[in-house]
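Notes taken during the Thursday session

The instructor put the following on the board and asked us to keep it in front of us for the whole hour. The protein is DEAD/DEAH box helicase. We were told not to look anything up and to reason only from what is written here. First, the residues (1139 in total):
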Amino acid sequence: MTESSLEKAQNPLKRKNIPDEDSRSLDPAATLSSNAPPPDVAVESAGARSSHDTPHDQEPETSQPKKNKANGRKKSTASTPHPKAAKRGPHPRHGPTPSSACRRPTQAVQAQLGKGQDLTVEDVARVKVLVPRAVRFEYVDEARLEVMTAGEKDLTDHGRNRRGLWTEEDLRMPSSEDGGDHSGLRRDVLLFEFVDGDLKREVPHPKTGEPSKPVRRMKDEDLKMPVYSQKQMLGLIEKRNNKFTDAIHAFLIQCEDQGTDPVEILEQEKDTFLPTPPGNGVTSPAVAKAPATIPKERKSIAEIIAEIREMEWYHAQIVPEGHRVFDAQTPVYGDLTFQLSQDLVNALYNTKSITQLYSHQAEAINHLYEGHNVIVSTSTSSGKSLIYQIPMLHELEKEPDSRGMYIFPTKALAQDQRRSMMDLLQYMNGLQHTMVETFDGDTPFASRNLIRDEARIIFTNPDMLHITILPQENAWRTYLKNLKFVVVDELHVYNGLFGSHVALVMRRLRRICAAVGNRHVKFISCSATVANPEEHMKSIFGVQDVRLIDFDGSPSGRKEFICWNTPFKDPADPTSGRGDSVAETARLFCQLVLRGVRVIAFCRIRKLCEILLQAVRNEFQALERPEIGKMVMGYRGGYSPQDRRRIEKEMFEGKLMGIVATNALELGVDIGSLDAVITLGFPYSISNLRQQSGRAGRRNKDSLSVLVGDRYPTDQHYMQNPDEIFTRPNCELQIDLANELILEGHVQCAAFEMPIRPDEDSIYFGEQIFALTATRLVKDSMGFYHCHERFRPQPSRCISIRDTEDQHFAVIDTTNNRNVVLEEVEASRAFFTIYEGGIFLHQGQTYLVQELNPERHFARVVRVHVDWSTMQRDFTDIDPIETETMRSVGSDPNASRAFFGSVQIHAVVYGFFKIDKRGRVLDAVAVDNPPIDLLTKGMWLDVPSRAIEILQSHRLNIAAAIHAAEHAVAKKELGRPLRRATDSLSDADLQKILQPPSRQRPARLTFYDAKGGSCGSGIAAKAFEFVGLLLCRAVARIEACACLSPQGCVECVCDERCKEMNVVMSKAGAGVILRCLLAWDVDVDGLPWGEDVEGEGFGVGGAGELAGGLETVVRAEEVPWKAGCSPDGEQSRPIEGDL
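Then, after some discussion, the predicted structure tokens were revealed:
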């Protein structure tokens, strides 16, 4: 190899004369400034704007950098720094150069080339050959890029009104309906961008203006753009220089080993990395490798996985021991102990092609025939619905006046089962005209009396039973007297507070049935696989004669489960941080669909669902298959019932190839055959994950389930320990019937339905009914107890059995004067998701919020075409305001005290950031929204001064220690109805930073009831009762865990349900706080000296805002006592025993 060849290969950017008549030049670059946009954008648009125009509705190409498998080079990063400006020049094949006014040069490129040297497209392609995953080099829509490429002055002076909000004219979607000429089509620009890492966000120092870490005394209203210091930038540049040099050396060594000329290889391979403008008829390599059409018959899942492993973008995402294969299961059949009619046999065959029953079906039906109650706990799609269909139809054949009540947690499930039952009835002589109807909130009032009097089977939900049927028991007596079966499907849903309410509703139902002479009604339940199905059914219905069927006799196809970890931005550099899990999921989703796999992707929250849907459609656009993007729809809460039914129908009929959903589709709505499930990020529990995975393979074909690991600690725990996904036990379901706050409401309802006799009704409501009736109800001269006047005239309306809201905001699409309601948003979510100037997502489309009207509860939005989104800036203060009682947490006289009383939740949205796809802040906008104030009950413990002193002496973050300590106390025993003060107010806040700009916060552990209103749900009261035991268990859990991470793991302080994704956690700090609360000794010498409590990926775009740095943690002050309460009533006895 000659010296000149070596020099050229080592730095292709230095080449002066490239023998390529197509090469084009770029101007040098602008000055780096401390207030520039994030410097990971090297040349925001280092390329030409093509004269080739494409339609406005064509999305930008977002395909990821390719990996050259032939050379197998080490992936690294380039050395060019990050100017902020966009540069536009001609593409050699596509037309003339735009005017020089469009050009924004970059100084960093000039530094590489030397004065007077031009950087060409071919040079950038050579860089991408050497470091393919470190840079992005592709054509994008100029309109979508405009916000990113504009300077700060442009953002301030142009395109926004005086409030700092973008106007409709700037961003709205062009349309033929506008009545104007829109022949001016989309313009494409060539984007060159570094994607291998991000910088920590900094803010201007209040005095010097220099970039610095966030200070503690920033005012709440200060909403500032992030800035970056020259030191940070130079450090990142140096890091990239070193890695780029390593990549060149690795390339040269490989060429030498293979006996090839590095310059020739570089020149040959650069052509494969030259981007092609969309729509010019040239097929890119990525597009060429995609299947031309969706096959009618797909390959096996094993073959498809093998193909994906060979894709350019596959970099060992499947973790070690993270690919499990479960062999197909052959069916096990069973026989009934009685004879079915020929009509029923024919109906089963004609509608479902059933000639034999599986063993679990036959066993359950036999138990019902013998007069037992039944709980079936088998896998999803195992045919559980037949277990409650066949007995009811058999009963109708014998007694046409028999009634059945089928209760489902959602309206969609009820309608799904009604259709199935009607299909069976059409083949049964004499029963074809039997009325079976849904009876829910959508049922017209004019039809309700007819359904009540004539229907033989109703499909309803617990809410209608509670609010309508039981309070009107005199009108429903005939129905209840002839009621044979009560079916409660998806029993695992009825857990915690909601389950406690439903259990009392079921006792009220049994009580009314017994009063009208029906003591033989049988209960049938089906559940996902849980730890205690039999005990849970007994608790829900208050019956003891229960038979459990948990052996699954249904066949199942071969199932494959994969743990798919989002790769590092630079696979050779773990410090670069993990990449974009949404983009990773979208790429996998699209490749599966293109191979004929019908896919459902689950997301934890609504906004993430919309972002993923948008990413999927952009990926199909990049693969030049935009028509397939229309075959993928979103499905989540907030969509109208009509839209959801339409999506379900289209998926069932095979018109859709994929759905992106929240857990709204976790339940068993039949949407046809699904081949694959992708779960983006670890869901709330192992049970949720298994329930979602069960949605694939519903037609006994082979299936795939993929868990895509995000960058958060819980996700990475399971990526590193995939065995736990398969070996962890299922969660136990729990309800609390002794909670007087819940019990009283239902006793009042029961007394309204029919007067109560405590000696008779204690079998339904327990021994507490004697005290409740004596103190809370009204007794008549006959000894009967009646509902108190304060609950009349409709006591059931006073008791909400689930956490639903009556107030909603209508989101109205005003694009081209359409004035169509897109969806309705709950009032508690509205201020966090719709705010003027913000971007609202619906079915993957972007809408600009023009107006929010809090008084009239609506928001006006207009469709826009942007490649950025917005993220609200808000804070939530959870503070005790009134103490009702206190108790010691331990037997030691020096132990701390726990307090119980009223807690106020104060939430404010004070602004929002405009952020790009990589989470980088483009702009900051302040808004003026009214606060949201709620009252509930809670328990709190003030952190002792001794603990604060120890933490400060070892530079351990106090806020992180408090967060971890709260997790350790609450995560195992108390469940989801109890939240910690470090939790967000709503699921919509999952991706926000922990806390807003700083304010003083007390050093306090606070636990509050997330449900139940101002009276709470009783869970915090229970935690207060057993607080000493909870603290002891938390300490034991932390000290028994062998994990080495400063943030802990899911075995000690991390919680799958944490709304902050377990960021800002200190395991060591939590141990200090808990031991000091109990007045136990602390091994100070064994504590770490300072630590990184943020964890990977904390904050926006990986740029952390440390809670302890943004808010000043101060010693907690005593909370005032409630009038009539005093410290003299302290409950000092330490609690012993079990929860």
